[in-house]
Amino acid sequence: MGSHNVEPSTSIMNPLDPEEFRRQAHLVVDFLADYYSSIENYPVCSQVQPGYLTKTMPKSPPMQPESIETILQDVQKHIIPGITHWQSPGFFGYFQSNGSTGNFLGEMLLTGFNTVGIMNPLDPEEFRRQAHLVVDFLADYYSSIENYPVCSQVQPGYLTKTMPKSPPMQPESIETILQDVQKHIIPGITHWQSPGFFGYFQSNGSTGNFLGEMLLTGFNTVGFNWLASPAATELEMVVMEWILKLLQLPKSFSFSSNGGGVIHGSTCESFVCTLIAAREKKLSQIGTQGDLTQGRLVVYCSDQTHFSLQKACKVVGINPSNIRVVSTTKSTNFELSPHALLMTIKSDVKAGLIPLYLCLTIGTTPTTAVDPLGTLCDVAKQFNMWVHVDAAYAGSACICPEFRHFLDGVEGASSFSFNPHKWFLTSLDCCCLWVKDSNDLTNALSTDPELLKNKQSESKQVVDYKDWQIALSRRFRAMKLWMVIRSYGVSGLQEHIRKHVKLAKDFEALLRTNSKFEVMVPRNFAMVCFRVSPSALATLANESSNEKVNRLNEQLLEALNGTGRVFMTHTVIEGVYVIRVAIGATLTDDKHISMLWDIVQEHANTLLAKYECLK
């Protein structure tokens, strides 16, 4: 498998086409049912040697999509031999990670959105029958997703009042369960995959991702070390190297150097791990006097940095008073100022504090601001600080050459992360973290209990990902990322990004044609921040105070979301209430932007007319 096969299957322009989803998912259901039927034919513990997969996989990701048939052939040929079969009846090694048809169906439902015999919850043929029903249920859901209000209209407590107070004593059929999903669960879902969803940075869905989730759930391996499932470890190394190349990250972040990459569940998890690594490294450098020294450590960020950093600091034991939130301004597009950072650090050093960690952002949540990496890394270098670059949202865009310049200067960082589960056609949860020196991470997080000792780990020839994260257990997340990259190819992923950027550019242009609206910050990627302008209100009400303008825009957002056709959120920047339109749903296209524009104009005009009546 030294090179890729070019066999397009899924339309690049519609990675969530319901009928293609249905066709491919049925193939994967049959693949997994056949796997369960023959699981006793495989050695329980994989017999492969370290490096078997990293030597076999192509060194670069495919440029063009590959068919599900080709991918499943490679799963059979290359992945399954490297799996330790946790679902095998001969697996007695660790406390079990049970699989069941019911669990698999639940995973299918949460990812997308007659009964199982009690004595055999993983009967292959019953698995096949029920899984096909759920595939059709989800394909029908995607076909009709625009019929549902984007944001759920239910009231708090709606489900707790409806559900039975006790669990069922006897099994229930999948048909009955799916009826309840349709009747009770779907009304309470905010439909993140709806083409009218513009509220938060997207959690993209795609057929390729769903099929990967099916496979990783079906195999249900727990790859905490290499031996526990060699394929899980080595495929993760492969896809992390692929994406490193796509982003043109420095070689220092590669496994071929002292660095490497790991897939976490979230940015917050990556914050926690890198903060611990930075803390332990700093304390080993300067010596420790317990809480006295740790109490002097300071973390720096901007007022645009995601709030999960402050939560991570609490977990790691950073004194809340030692978190420096440096103010940004509209005049610099809310970028972190190198001068302001330098002055803040110098003041802390003068006070006897110890600069520890700087978090920079590519595409902030409120405005998609981009911090200037090069100059800020230069500031941090003066004080021997750990620099983490959070590109959770916009990192995906940087696989396109026209956006790669936003990462200029990343070579000065100690770690870098982005979330494929935002804009990379990959579902929750999936956060890619690279570190420049993997020893910093493993020295801080490694454990070596007797139960997990084995000759492969002791040889130091393998990666044990348990030492790159907080938890011991871990999902086979690399499977879905590998499936996405192969299903759409680099060109398809780039086309996906560019489509949303164009839609955002089109919506921004529409706003600029109407003087009633004001675009509040430069559009860097696929999010537009706007409001009804003060001039529109002043003309009618002889009053344009910031408070009144804010209230008008708050009312506008409430009216827009109340239609059920769209969902947006807001932010407040320098005291100004701003409506955020985050374009990124897989199914969103031109007609949905036209619909959004019509709704925005209609409800803005209605509100302004009310103010005219009050004049």
From TrEMBL:
Organism the protein comes from: Artemisia annua
InterPro entries documented for this protein: Aromatic_deC (IPR010977), PyrdxlP-dep_de-COase (IPR002129), PyrdxlP-dep_Trfase (IPR015424), PyrdxlP-dep_Trfase_major (IPR015421), PyrdxlP-dep_Trfase_small (IPR015422), Pyridoxal-P_BS (IPR021115)
Family per similarity comment: Belongs to the group II decarboxylase family.
Top-level lineage group: Eukaryota
High-level lineage: Eukaryota, Viridiplantae, Streptophyta, Embryophyta, Tracheophyta
MF (Gene Ontology): L-tryptophan decarboxylase activity; pyridoxal phosphate binding
Residue(s) carrying N6-(pyridoxal phosphate)lysine: 422
CDD domains noted in UniProt: DOPA_deC_like
One annotated Gene Ontology cellular component of this protein: cytoplasm
Keyword Lyase: yes
Any Pfam family: Pyridoxal_deC
Protein name as annotated: Tyrosine decarboxylase 3
GO biological process: amino acid metabolic process; carboxylic acid metabolic process
Cofactor: pyridoxal 5'-phosphate
